[in-house]
Write a structure and sequence with these properties.
The longest helix is centred in the last third of the chain and has 22 residues, at 129-150. The chain is built from 7 helices and 3 strands, in the order H-H-H-E-H-H-E-E-H-H. The model is unreliable at 1-8, 15-19, 50-56 and 185-190 (pLDDT under 50). It is mostly helical.
């Protein structure tokens, strides 16, 4: 176990706010710092949506943004709509908890629910045009901020970062596809 006191990290939570980096810092702390930077950028980019021309009333929780991201990902895989069970399975949460998040997004007109054409006992969920626009806007702000901060790096530093990330990249994880109960048929957003 490395001597954390040598890095000023011997107190709970100190690793999250430690600004002084050394070449002797353990790799897990370097990656924690990178994760903290990205989380901070994401929070800044997603927290004040009014600055991007969005309505002041649009306030999303972290979990609501996660639901929107998962819906976007699942819809990009070819599903026009997603069953609540499939969404909850991919989010690793209960159907009841997922339903509450979806209902909050429906009330903000970011997500729509339509009857499942293959099983009338269930519904298909998809992003509305407004939800898709908001999602794309949030991520554009996030990527713009990363580019702005990366502008302080030299081309050699960016090349080193790219080489290190490629070296560290794990093979893609096969996602378990939860049966979507035929929601992938044509669905029109409301």
């Amino acid at each position: 176990m490395p001597n954390l006191a040598a890095f000023g990290l011997d107190k709970p939570g100190a690793a999250l706010y430690h600004a002084h980096m050394t070449s002797n810092m353990p790799p897990h702390l370097l990656f924690q710092k990178l994760s903290d930077i990205l989380d901070s950028l994401r929070r800044e980019s997603f927290s004040n949506l009014s600055g991007s021309g969005q309505a002041d009333s649009v306030q999303l929780t972290h979990r609501q943004r996660a639901v929107m991201a998962e819906l976007k990902f699942m819809q990009e895989e070819g599903d026009a709509g997603v069953s609540l069970k499939a969404l909850a399975g991919n989010m690793q949460m209960t159907i009841a908890a997922c339903s509450l998040l979806v209902e909050a997004l429906v009330s903000k007109q970011l997500v729509c629910r339509v009857p499942n054409p293959a099983d009338r006992r269930s519904v298909c969920i998809s992003l509305t045009e407004t939800g898709l626009h908001l999602f794309n806007s949030m991520h554009a702000r996030f990527y713009d901020e990363i580019d702005r901060r990366a502008a302080s790096l030299t081309q050699a530093e960016l090349n080193t970062l790219a080489r290190l990330l490629k070296k560290m990249q794990a093979p893609p994880i096969k996602r378990k596809k939860v049966r979507n109960l035929a929601c992938n048929s044509e669905i029109s957003a409301v």
